């Protein structure tokens, strides 16, 4: 599942993690991304130490590791901006791909609260469109999930050929062993959640004028994917 930041991606990981047939992994390329870019995120050294330092090893674990007995679905939560240019896209060919999108103006209004000067690369929409062009796969909009969780998840599961499970609609509050070590910095709202909450516009007023050019740059990639979304 490829998404950018601030797209209910962690809640969707919770949803899949509540299925009895599913194993989840949380942002397996994050450590490599931080080490390679030098970007300073909360818990940076801890994140880097928690994951393979070589993208080849990380992707090998994602495509070749056997699932535990009784599990048939391997849900991988990926941030598309973690897919740096040197990572061989051909190594992704063994995976089934899906795409979680969000209106870029809403995404930016939310993301600007935690990073004042985001770039196009930070948001991952261009990389998301690149992966979609290469591999295809179902596209789901986070607004559709929040508005009609059951209908959206049924459509997604049907497109993936895995069958919907009602357990995906709610989960116990609190952390999970499958959460990345960065969860204590970022997952407070998800830890408090027990299901998908209602969609709410970002607070804080209109998008700052300084971010309007970035929103315009994001729009073509979002619209390309939005045209393929499951719920219309």
Order of secondary-structure elements? EHEHHHEEHHHEHHHHH
How much helicity do the residues have? 40-55%
* CATH class annotation: Alpha Beta
CATH topological fold name: Rossmann fold
Rg (C-alpha, Å): 17 Å
Task: Provide the low-confidence segments as ranges.
Answer: none
Could you give the distance between the termini?
Answer: 20 Å
Q: Major sheet: size, sense and barrel closure?
A: 5 strands, parallel
State mean pLDDT (0 to 100 scale): 93
Describe the structure in brief.
The protein is 43% helix and 9% strand.
Observed structural traits:
five-stranded parallel beta sheet, globular, 12 helices, Rossmann fold, alpha/beta, 232 residues
Walk me through the topology:
Blueprint: E1 2-3, H1 9-17, E2 22-26, H2 30-37, H3 44-50, H4 55-64, E3 73-79, E4 99-101, H5 104-111, H6 120-123, H7 125-135, E5 139-141, H8 142-147, H9 149-160, H10 183-186, H11 188-192, H12 212-226
Parallel strand pairs: 1-3, 1-4, 2-3, 4-5
């Amino acid at each position: 599942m490829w998404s950018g930041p601030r797209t209910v991606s962690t809640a969707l990981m919770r949803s899949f993690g509540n299925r009895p047939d599913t194993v989840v992994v949380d942002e397996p390329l994050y450590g490599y991304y931080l080490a390679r870019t030098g970007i300073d995120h909360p818990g940076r050294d801890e994140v880097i130490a928690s994951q393979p330092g070589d993208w080849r090893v990380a992707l090998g674990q994602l495509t070749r590791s056997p699932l535990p007995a009784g599990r048939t679905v391997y849900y991988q939560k990926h941030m598309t901006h973690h897919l740096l240019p040197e990572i061989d896209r051909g190594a992704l060919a063994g995976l089934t791909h899906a795409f979680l999108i969000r209106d870029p103006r809403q995404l930016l209004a939310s993301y600007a609260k935690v990073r004042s000067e985001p770039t196009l690369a930070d948001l991952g929409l261009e990389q998301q469109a690149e992966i979609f062009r290469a591999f295809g796969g179902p596209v789901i909009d986070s607004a559709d999930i929040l508005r009609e969780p059951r209908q959206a998840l049924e459509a997604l599961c049907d497109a993936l050929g895995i069958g919907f499970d009602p357990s995906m609609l709610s989960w116990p509050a609190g952390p999970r062993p499958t959460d990345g070590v960065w969860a204590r910095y970022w997952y407070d709202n998800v830890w408090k959640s027990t299901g998908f909450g209602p969609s709410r516009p970002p607070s804080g007023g209109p998008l700052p004028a300084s971010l309007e050019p970035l929103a315009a740059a994001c729009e073509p990639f979002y619209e390309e994917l939005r045209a393929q979304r499951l719920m219309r």
